[in-house]
Write a structure and sequence with these properties.
This protein is an alpha+beta fold. The protein is built from 13 helices and 20 strands. The radius of gyration is 21 Å and the shape is globular. The two termini are 34 Å apart. It binds adenosine-5-diphosphoribose (APR) and P-hydroxybenzoic acid.
């Protein structure tokens, strides 16, 4: 097979890049290890920055998002028994849109199907070859048969556990990592959300997040021990712990119900540099991971795709390699700012083992400053709704 851009991974990064390239008549083939149903079965955060919404609109797949997405102009932060709201439009004229990542992926799949996108699922043994030449190629297996894609460029959109990052030689790669001493236990329940905006809550008993998918589907998280297993958490124990971490006025309004999904996610900050090697370019989780506290995973993948799409367009359609030659440094400049905000909010809102009494007072003082200072709230709002591309 032959194409212009071979894309590894049919998550949000790979699908969005493929769809954007198609809008400029640039051919791509997407290789995906899992089945389409498996990809659609993933439950992930759905807080979209306005840049992500604009990109989906540019890709021609934002109609349902526009109809069903919930525009949020603020977020609530809680510290112990008190809570306060940060109103985004007091500081920046861009809201966020709450719309599940699963729905984003579904819309991208539909758009690729409608425009004749070439997606190959359930492939095995994907390998990237000759990335440092002007004729790279990708080998893989499908139904046990070996196959090959000759291409001009390879986009590594295959997530943290993919092959693309590891194709860059270890002596070239610089990896930066921070793991957090706790996890997030998440529950999906067919109950009305406790509030019409998200609530990030910090308390002496731990972190909690109240989110939603729509008016009758809520998503809740509590901080848990990294060694916990979801199956060891009965629903009642989860609801009790959630209420304990929320201000009483919010806990009293919580409508509980049976969990329809329950899982634990570890928290990690990770960045690999560079994000390009020859004609291989990394996007999204293949290059970086953030703790979910700032909802930056999908949105930072989207900004990578924005940069790579425009750089490939300049090169392929106009013969201008300037943006492509500098893709890594351009993407990383925004990646590191997203990493900083995600690390800062995670450090601020969670209880850390062996945290000293002084550390606790610093956490409380930082939240009190954020509650009472307009400039601090403006910095929060600019980061949360998304820094410019
Ligand atoms: N060959 C083909 N496909 C692969 C391979 C491989 N060797 N390894 C992984 N994949 C696929 C995975 O099955 C997955 O569907 O690549 C895709 C990567 O998708 P994501 O992990 O969702 O990463 P990305 O598209 O960058 O999206 C980032 O998704 O994971 C969340 O929190 C993350 O919200 C962020 C967003
Ligand atoms: C979610 O709705 O799953 C969600 C929202 C915001 C976050 C993380 C997860 O920061």
């Amino acid at each position: 097979m032959k194409t212009t851009v071979a894309i590894i991974g049919a998550g949000p990064s790979g699908l969005l890049l493929s769809q954007l390239l198609a809008t400029r008549g640039i051919d791509s083939i997407v290789l995906e290890r899992q089945s389409k149903a498996h990809v659609l079965g993933r439950i992930r955060a759905g807080v979209l920055e306005s840049g992500t919404v604009d990109l989906l609109r540019q890709a021609g797949c934002a109609d349902r998002l526009t109809r069903e997405g919930q525009v949020h102009d603020g977020v609530v932060l809680a510290d112990g028994d008190t809570q306060f709201r940060i109103n985004f439009s007091d500081h920046i004229d861009r809201p966020v849109v709450v719309y599940g990542q699963t729905e984003v992926t579904r819309d991208l799949f539909d758009a690729r199907a409608a425009s004749g996108g070439h997606l190959i699922f359930e492939v095995g043994n994907v390998a990237i070859h000759d990335a440092k030449t002007d004729a790279p190629y990708v080998t893989f297996e499908k139904d046990g048969k070996p196959d090959r894609i000759d291409c001009a460029y390879v986009a590594g959109c295959d997530g943290f556990h993919g092959v693309s990052r590891k194709t860059i030689p270890a002596d070239i790669r610089r990896e930066y990592e921070k793991t957090y001493p706790f996890g997030w236990l998440g529950v999906l329940s067919e109950t009305p959300p406790v509030h019409d905006e998200l609530i990030y809550a910090s308390s002496d008993t731990g972190f909690a997040l109240c989110s939603m998918r729509h008016a009758t589907l809520s998503r809740y998280y509590i901080q848990c021990d990294i060694n916990d297993r979801a199956e060891d958490w009965a629903d009642d124990a989860f609801w009790t712990a959630l209420k304990q971490n929320l201000p009483p006025e919010t806990a009293a309004k919580l409508i509980t119900g049976p969990s329809i999904e329950k899982s634990i996610a570890p928290l990690r900050s990770f960045v690999t540099e560079p994000m390009q090697w020859g004609r291989l370019f990394l996007c999204g989780d293949a290059a970086h991971i953030v703790p979910p506290t700032g909802a930056k995973g999908l949105n930072t993948a989207a900004s990578d795709v924005h940069y790579l799409f425009h750089a490939l367009q300049d090169q392929i359609l106009n013969g201008d390699s300037q943006a492509l030659d500098h893709y890594s440094e351009t993407a990383l400049a925004r990646v590191w700012k997203a990493e900083r905000f995600s690390w800062w909010l995670t450090s601020l809102m969670h209880q850390f083992p062996q945290q000293s009494a002084f550390d606790q007072r610093m956490r409380r003082a930082e939240l009190d400053f954020l509650r009472s200072n307009t400039a601090a709230q403006s910095v929060f709002a600019q980061n949360y709704v998304g820094l410019p591309y």
